[in-house]
Each structure stands twice: as structure tokens, then as C-alpha cells.
Amino acid sequence: MRIVLPLVTAAILAGCSAAPPPPATPSPKQQARLAQLLDGKVAGTPRSCIPNWRTYNMIAIDDSTLVFQESPGRLWLQKPKNPCNLLSAGPYALVTRDSIGQLCNGDIAQVIDTMSRTNVGSCVMGDFVPYVRPGA
């Protein structure tokens, strides 16, 4: 019994220290959609925050890639620090709360089931990378 307890404890601790699984690779269809949105645009310097009014049209490419459309010539690419689980899978919406009129790196966003209005997940925002059509 004395030998079994340390082995069980070691197994439990090893299971707790495992790294989270890597994010899923986007499908070819998702990759094509992102390429279409970014076509002809050049990446700029990442920003920690963007004003809320720039986030009026969000496109979930997959659970780990979001695009906020500001205008036809400018998009903001968002790679959350963890996947927004289920966001791209069905009737789900991303809900953010802010007190300063900006969406920022480190903000927590909730994934809400729009049918039942229940929280089904959350994710943490990363930096926002602008993609701009040259001359726009």
C-alpha cells in the first residue's frame, strides 16, 4: 500500500502539469476565407487596444482567428490567447464588456449560445494587428 500511494500521487500530478493541446489547424476553407479577407492588405504594427467603434463587423474564421472589419480597406486580425471554443461552430456570439470604449489585449470575451442565452465559453484577447490596403 505504501508503494501504490506515491505512484497514484505522481500520476495525478503528472496529469495536472500537462501542456494544453495546441489549437486546431484551420481547415482549407477557413484558410481560404482568411486569405480572401486579407488579400491586397499589408500587416501593420500590432496594437494593444482598438476603439469599440472599429469592431462593428466581426468574422470568426475559426475559434482562434477573428477578424474585425473597420472598412473595406482596413481589418484588424485578432488571435485570442486561448480559443473561443464553439464560436465558429453554430449559433454563438462573442460578447465583450468594456468600461473605456476600447477592446484591449487581456480583455475576457464570453461565447454565448444565442438560442439559450447561456455562456458556453470564454477567451482572452491578444494584440490587434491592422491589415490595410496600401494607399487607403
* Secondary-structure element order, N to C: HHEEEEEEEEEE
Question: What is the subunit organization of this protein?
Answer: single chain
Helix content: 10-25%
Low-confidence runs (pLDDT<50, min 5 residues)?
A: 4-11, 16-21
* Total number of strands: 10
What proportion of the residues form beta strands (DSSP E)?
35-45%
Radius of gyration (CA) equals: 19 Å
Number of helices: 2
Largest sheet: 5 strands, antiparallel
Any descriptors?
136 residues, alpha+beta, five-stranded antiparallel sheet, three-stranded antiparallel sheet, 2 helices, 35% strand, globular
If you had to describe this structure to a student in words, what would you say it looks like?
The protein is an alpha+beta fold and 136 residues long. It is 18% helix and 35% strand. The protein contains two helices and ten strands. The protein has helices spanning 4-16, 28-38; strands at residues 42-43, 49-51, 57-62, 65-71, 74-78, 92-95, 102-104, 108-113, 118-124, 128-132. The strands form three sheets. The protein has a five-stranded antiparallel β-sheet, covered by helices on one side. β4 and β5 form a beta hairpin. It is globular, with a radius of gyration of 19 Å. Residues 4-11 and 16-21 have low confidence and may be disordered.
